[in-house]
Amino acid sequence: MDISLNIPDLPNLIHYAIPFFILTLIIEIIITSKKQMASYTFKDAAASITMGLGNVFIGLFAKALVLTVLTLVYVNFRFFTIPFTWWAWVLVFFADDFCYYWFHRISHENRLFWASHVVHHSSKKYNLSTALRQTWSGSFMSFIFWLPMALLGFHPVMILAQMSISLIYQYWIHTELIDKLPKWFEAVFNTPSHHRVHHATNPQYLDRNHAGILIIWDKMFGTFEPEVEKPIYGLVKNIETYNPIKIAFIEWYLMLKDAIESKTTIANKLKYFIKPPGWKHDGTGMVSSDLRQEWENKNGNNH
Predict the structure, then answer these.
(1) Residues 6 or more apart from 135 whose CB is under 8 A from it?
(2) Any bridge partners for residue 189, and if so which?
(3) Global pTM?
């Protein structure tokens, strides 16, 4: 079956964005140094950039797999055929952002997906280099959240293009230099303020603001939290390493170790892959919702 549908030749947007990433990163380093903000340390930024370069390289292979699977679904199972027109790009914008929200949320609530996503949260700094700290393993799994779009009839090339646009958008929100933006913008779009909350380890901020481009999904599904208290970045239990190999795979190792070494039933062992990070079969673990509830009880808040 011909699936060309007069497809425009879309460039690899991420590759074109790299010079912009480098330029803005240098500018941020200069400004934060002048303001004595201590936003950067050499080892941390170097680790983040190394993770980003690794992600781009691995992405060359992962993208081929993703394109193949999306195309198989599109060719054999699609319900409709959505053309390459202006209104289709409007639809793909919202559909992609919706899929991203659920991918991102589940990546925090399911340890198997967290094993890949934890990479992005492993820095205790929050700056533009943190945006580049990307997974080396997640690209081979995360695409399953976008399969419904191929089923609906969005062409795989259109899906991948919008995924790249979303990723590029999310780069600029990794900064402390921008405080709050106009209220109308903060109400609709993901911003540095919203995303600082997402990267914070403060109990009230855990597993909040999973947005890609639009913050509306968090407000719709009850995961929105405004930035009030100053965020403390990193993980609830930091990994304390700048070694890219450890950053990429340490959570995979710990997850497998928990599942294999736990003296419990097979069913409980499997739960180490599907329960949230922090879950223990014997009830001794604390997951994000427990930490948040503890904070709410202590502060008398009713969120």
Answers:
(1) 51, 55, 116, 117, 119, 120, 248
(2) 214
(3) 0.94
Q: Residues, the chain, total?
A: 303
Token output for 84:
């390459």
* Identity at 108, one-letter amino acid code: H
Tokens of 257: 């170790």
Q: How far apart are CA 82 and CA 72, in angstroms?
A: 16
Summarised one tens digit per residue, pLDDT across range 122-134 is 999 999 999 999 9
φ and ψ of 233, to 5 deg: -90, 160
* Integer Cα distance of 128 and 174 in angstroms: 5
d(CA 213, CA 170): 7
Query: Scanning the structure block, which residue is given the tokens 């419904």?
Result: 148
The amino acid at residue 52 is G
Cα gap 296→285, rounded to integer Å: 18
Residue-by-residue DSSP string for 194-218: HHHHHTB-SGGGTT----SSBTHHH
**pLDDT for 81-106, tens place per residue?**
999 899 999 999 999 999 999 999 99
Token pair 């929105």 in the structure block, residue: 224
Q: What is the pLDDT of residues 262-273, one digit of tens each?
A: 999 999 999 999
The upper half-sphere exposure of residue 197, i.e. CA atoms within 13 Å in the direction of its Cβ, equals: 22
Q: How far apart are CA 89 and CA 14, in angstroms?
A: 18
